[in-house]
UniProtKB/TrEMBL annotation:
Domain of life the protein comes from: Eukaryota
Protein name: Uncharacterized protein
Region span, Disordered: 28-50
Amino acid sequence: YYLVSLKSPRRHLWSLFTQCKYSPWGREQTDPTDFPNDNQKHSTRPNPETDEADFEAWLDHFLFDGKPSMERTNMYRCYHPSNYQSRSFTTHHYKARQVIHETELLPIWEDVRARYWNNFEWVGLAEFFHESKCLLFYRLSLGPTLYPWADEYVAQHCTCSQSSRHTK
């Protein structure tokens, strides 16, 4: 099976930003840079008073005339937010967080389609974890190899009505 779980792009950007700002790894990476952090430099507690302004400054850093800048490879030694999830599908570099060359900012959609989209058996959404899990287990219960535990899970934990279930 080809499986993938994706996150809402907006929530994913926030997650990348807070990883850079608050995690031990992120602080180690960004401390020697001018990463926007009006909070105490070593604080691990979110500060709503500064987070929104810092987030906006972080995003603005990667823009030029309101569009993603191809010259902005200075990532504060952390993440470059432009098309992050899409780039991770197409990069030939082992660290998808990095943008080594400006052409890596834009995913090669033909590569994505050819290598992934046409082959995915299941796409989960992090914001709908339970629903995605139900869909996965339902899909497993329909496969050529029967997984009785998957069918049991769907019956016990998912809100699919029996009459709307696909006939095996």
